[in-house]
């Protein structure tokens, strides 16, 4: 794993300034469940703060080094009882469900009768991803996204 450059570390410190600690290490120390939580937090956030309770600075430094070596993370900052750790987020590819085909979904439309005395009519319709059902039960396509006139002039 590459080391962070001073410029990268400085930028990460600035970004971490507004963060709150997501993991707190108590008197039990660095247990496997705490390591698992730190790893999960790094996967989802990338940059986290960890608070370590205890007055022994050497113990906090040892915990900091253990976390970074075991989780292949970068040490960013260690101030008092706060540790700032960085690991690039893992790119997760989400698979789309293909239950009803490509962008199609089945919608049930219930329309009340005109006179109000008869049963409502129920119809099942397949609509595309860019369509929606209005309150009246009709299907409308989404409007095309408006383009900025300023951006088209500048480009």
What does this structure look like?
This protein is of the alpha+beta class and 155 residues long. It has helices spanning 6-16, 32-45, 57-70, 149-154, and strands at 23-25, 47-52, 74-79, 82-86, 105-111, 121-127, 131-133, 139-141. A 4-stranded mixed sheet has the order 1-2-4-3, sandwiched between helices. A two-stranded antiparallel ribbon has the order 5-6. It folds into 2 domains: 6-86, Translation Initiation Factor IF3 (2-Layer Sandwich), CATH 3.30.110.60; 99-142, no CATH class.
Number of domains: 2
Which architecture name of the largest domain does CATH use?
2-Layer Sandwich
Find the CATH superfamily of the largest domain: YhbY-like
Distance between the termini: 40 Å
Average pLDDT figure: 85
Largest sheet: 4 strands, mixed
Write down the overall geometry. elongated
Name the quaternary structure.
Answer: single chain
The ordered string of helix (H) and strand (E) elements is HEHEHEEEEEEH
Topology-level CATH name of the largest domain: Translation Initiation Factor IF3
Sheet with most strands: strand arrangement: 1-2-4-3
Gyration radius (Cα, Å) is 27 Å
Text of the CATH class of the largest domain: Alpha Beta
Query: Unreliable segments (pLDDT under 50, ≥5 consecutive)?
Result: none
Structural class: alpha+beta
Please tally the β strands and state the result: 8
